[in-house]
Amino acid sequence: MKKLLFTLFIFITFLSHAQQVETITIPKGVVYNYCSVKTLEKAKKILSNNLSADNDYKLVQEHLIVGPILWERYKDNENIKKIPNGKVQFHVDNLVLDGKMTQDINDTKIIWDEFRKEVAQDYKIRKATENELNYYWSVISFDIEEPLLIVETKEHNYILNILEKDLKLLWLDEAPKKNNTLTANYSGVKKYQNGEEIDSIPKGEKETSIEKVMLLSTDDVIIANSSVEDITDILNKTNKIFDELFKGSEKSGRIRIQFELKKDKNEITYAVKDDIDLDIMKVFEQRVNNENYPKSKNDPVVIQLFYKVNSFNDVE
Hints:
The chain is of the alpha+beta class. 34% of the residues lie in helices and 27% in strands. The strands form 3 sheets. Strands 2, 3, 4, 5, 7, 8, 9, 10 and 11 form a 9-stranded mixed sheet that branches. It has a 4-stranded antiparallel sheet with strand order 12-15-13-14. A two-stranded parallel ribbon has the order 1-6.
């Protein structure tokens, strides 16, 4: 009996250790979802294989998003410059960041090959630090889902976000090593206030501008049914109407617009907060509703845009 209990104890102990998830420090306000140990280890193995001489491109797919810091270095690479399409911009508060999204598997392979050359064999694979998560969270507009891996080399720390569903690489970027601010590491940042490009934004100043963008659909749904170009088109059209109407408004408040892109007919809903000028808001809704926006290929894609009018940054 004692032998049986001891054996069960060893088995249960082994099982609990085998399934234990490696936790990390998650910064306040960041949404980070762990995957299983099995999935994470499988992702690490595929990544290691694709960084080796036996690379079979199993990790890459048709669409790969190259984040702003890495794209700042890669955009002048002679091989990568041959990729014709996929220029994208990421709107983060008052920043407009340049990036890339490949449209073809062969283009993705070109970027992956250049990445492999930089990494060579002198690297280690680990989870993200608190600062790296802060940076990544500042660029993206969706919850962070594992597998999220860092490939650390002597010169660079690379962020690789892999889709849990099929273990394909969605996002490739470079993380700041010492400073997690975009402006310190990315010379391509542009700042805007009231629709005009400026050098800096005084801290604590009231502004009338887009505040943030949230993608409420999962990564795989967005990739399968929409594109960065489609989302950018929605942003550009809505931003233009907002600037024309609210730039001179004396009242203050916030606006939330939700776009639900569908295959047949899109749905747009609105919510306001504080003392928004309702007369201007009525015209704003009419003009936004009258625009033609891209539709989903099949499943719905949900996007939320947040605007502030004569208001400080939302720090909640």
